[in-house]
Write a structure and sequence with these properties.
heterodimer, A: 346 residues, alpha/beta, Rossmann fold, 2 domains, eight-stranded mixed β-sheet, five-stranded parallel β-sheet, 15 strands, elongated, B: 323 residues, mainly alpha, ABC transporter involved in vitamin B12 uptake, BtuC, 75% helix
Chain lengths: 346, 323
């Protein structure tokens, strides 16, 4: 008990010292943002590399705006587990909560409570259900669904020199995310890259399904090559597919170019040896960074989160679109230059 | 002798609860606030409601590991019915019926077919969870009527008590009176102490056990409705692992895992203690990882400590022990 008290006193002293140092250089603070905000950064679950990276971005923003940020959350990624921590945030009278929703419904009542207690809530990385959008100020998400698709067309065009025919190696035929992205690829290719085409005539007829299964994706990759020997490039908008494609391309020394959405930790060997030039995915660091700015500005009264308004994070301005969502923009890309750093993160 | 020991443990847990609250109030200014007390009660409500029934079952020498799955299946049924057009009230009644049926199925397999409850309820744990997915798919139901879901997170007007405190208080009072002041309660203890002797003294052992399983199913159903309202949604993966929290609370409350011993008050004090400890640790920014260790250690203590005390006391009073 005495030891515990001593610890609490010591912790209080340290916090006091931190607050003192944070407040002193008042000039370092960003205009339009109150300094000394108490901000909670809550992942779906702690102990996940992806969220450690997300928090890294959040902490960077916190440092810039002179806020005191705490990374706090459950060990299991469920809504009910997060609810206990949201309550803790309410009790401890935080000013701001930046959260990645582990469950798009279960945490909504708690977020409403937090809002009623005067806490500014911003979701980042994963949002609450559309019907419950009023439980947070704004949501910071990676990229608009159509842009995730079209960005990959840009990458493959760059890889093949803007000419030749391409194919898609997707996940399951029923995968909603992938289907939305692929749908956006079709018209974009025709419009932006007139010298390029789809191997099967249309994007639909050029899409192969690997069902997010390594073996099946490998077989589908081989099927594309034998069916269309002239194929110049393959987009695989799923981490399983793009990895299988990279492995198989290397094994067969195939000339076809490959890109898509890949995890840097898995893709690192193939990017480092040049098998694949570029893959992309969203960058959790930016998600955390931008969310803290949005939340801090909302708490400071200089940003409402209403559709059509915008806010500045660092040097970039972000606009709130339909549904109270601000997108980061293009997916983040990994190349030989930055893969070393990111493969350690997620 | 046995009776005196039980009394001691349940008092001990009550003292432990008071200590947790007092110490908690000292080490965190946020702990003993009206809002937080309301939250802790809300947070443990489902576990407490199921623990009421589980207390009877373990005292009678049985166990039910499928309670969390029944909770979730009730919730899934409510969501399923509501999504398919029934009124929310009808959906709740339907959910409770499903809970009762689940309990009856467990009871039937144990008492009529004669299988051990541990094995039966491990099976139904998986079965009922599977049915949740069959009912809802991967699509949670989330647009529940607002006038109902406010009951899940608001307090009773003018008090610091959450709405879930009402069913909890009523059910706890009934469970307490029945267990300690009626024939059904005495039969429950008698069955747990020695089922053979109970049978020969004219107690309808099988019917009693069937009733206890059915009641546990129904209580899990009530907890399922509370859970649905609290999280404003019905999803197939709700309350995973709650059965362990329930059993931990019941054992920590002084109910002997071998049956025959226990008090309802001890179990209630244990449920609240566990909720209060978790809240204190969270509020003093104890790391989430360490929190897992603490809850695991408490579970272990709750099983080991009563046994250790029993052994210690029986050595001291070996002359008086009849068992």
């Amino acid at each position: 008990m005495i030891k515990k008290l001593a610890k609490v006193v010591a912790a209080a002293a340290i916090v006091g010292a931190l607050v003192a140092t944070a407040v002193t250089p008042a000039s370092a603070v960003v205009p339009g943002i109150k300094s000394g905000l108490k901000i909670a950064i809550m992942p779906k679950a702690v102990n996940i590399g992806y969220f450690t990276a997300w928090n890294k971005g959040a902490q960077k923003a916190c440092k810039e705006i002179g806020a005191k940020c705490t990374y706090v959350g459950p060990t299991e990624a469920t809504g009910p587990a997060q609810v206990q921590f949201i309550n803790k945030i309410i009790q401890q009278k935080y000013d701001v909560l930046v959260i990645s929703a582990a469950d798009q419904n279960a945490i909504v009542p708690s977020l409403k409570k937090a809002k009623a207690a005067g806490i500014t809530v911003v979701t980042s990385d994963a949002d609450v259900a559309e019907a419950s959008a009023s439980s947070r100020v704004v949501s910071i998400l990676p990229a608009a669904s159509s842009r995730i698709g079209t960005a990959q067309v840009d990458w493959i065009a760059e890889a093949v020199g803007k000419k030749g025919s391409i194919a898609v190696l997707s996940a399951a035929a029923t995968a909603a995310n992938q289907n939305a992205w692929i749908k956006a690829m079709g018209p974009y290719l025709t419009k932006k890259y007139p010298k390029m085409s789809w191997v099967g005539g249309t994007v639909g007829k050029s899409t192969f399904y690997g069902d997010d299964d390594a073996t099946k994706s490998t077989a589908q990759f081989a099927a594309i090559l034998s069916q269309y020997p002239d194929v110049a490039g393959i987009i695989s908008p799923t981490t399983v597919g793009v990895l299988a494609a990279a492995i198989e391309k290397k094994a067969k020394s195939a000339k076809v170019k490959v890109t898509g959405l890949g995890l840097p930790s898995q893709m690192a060997p193939y990017i480092e040896d040049g098998t694949v030039k570029k893959v992309g995915l969203w960058n959790p660091i930016d998600l955390g960074y931008v969310a803290v700015y949005a939340a801090a500005r909302a708490e400071s009264g200089t940003f409402t989160g209403k559709v059509g308004t915008s806010f500045k994070a660092g040097t970039t301005t972000y606009k709130v679109t339909t549904g109270g969502v601000a997108f980061l923009g293009d997916p983040f890309t990994f190349t030989k230059e930055n893969i070393k750093t990111f493969k350690k993160i997620y | 002798m046995k009776k005196k020991y039980t009394f001691g443990w349940d008092q001990g847990v009550s003292v432990f609860l008071v200590l947790t609250v007092v110490v908690g109030g000292f080490i965190s200014e946020y702990f003993a606030t009206i809002d937080n007390i309301s939250f802790v009660i809300q947070d443990v409500a489902e576990i407490a409601i199921i623990a009421l029934a589980m207390t009877y079952l373990i005292i009678a020498g049985e166990i039910d590991l499928s309670v969390a799955s029944i909770l979730s299946l009730t919730s899934a049924t409510v969501g399923f019915l509501f999504r398919n057009g029934t009124s929310f009230e009808v959906a709740i009644v339907g959910g409770l019926l499903v809970g009762l049926l689940c309990g009856l199925l467990n009871g039937y397999l144990v008492t009529v077919i004669g299988l051990p409850s541990l094995a039966v309820t491990i099976g139904t744990l998986a079965l009922f969870r599977g049915l949740c997915y069959a009912l809802l798919g991967n699509e949670p139901v989330n647009e529940l009527p607002e006038n109902w879901i406010v009951l899940g997170y608001e307090n009773i007007p003018g008090t610091f008590l959450p709405w879930s405190a009402i069913p909890l208080a009523i059910l706890a009072a009934i469970a307490w009176i029945v267990l300690h002041y009626t024939r059904i309660g005495r039969w429950t203890f008698a069955i747990g102490i020695n089922p053979e002797a109970a049978k020969f003294s004219g107690i309808p052992v099988a019917r009693m056990k069937l009733g206890l399983f059915a009641m546990t199913g129904l209580m899990s159903g009530v907890a399922g409705v509370v859970y649905t309202l609290r999280f404003a949604s019905a999803s197939p993966d709700g309350a995973v692992g709650y059965e362990l929290s329930v059993i931990a609370a019941v054992l920590f409350g002084g109910v002997a895992i071998a049956g025959g011993i226990g008090t309802l008050w001890g179990v209630l004090a244990a449920v609240l203690s566990l909720g209060a400890i978790r809240s204190v640790l969270q509020l003093i920014d104890f790391s989430a990882n360490a929190l897992l260790v603490v809850s695991g250690a408490l579970l272990l203590i709750s099983v080991v400590a009563p046994k250790a005390i029993e052994i210690y006391q029986s050595r001291r009073n070996s002359a008086f022990v009849t068992k």
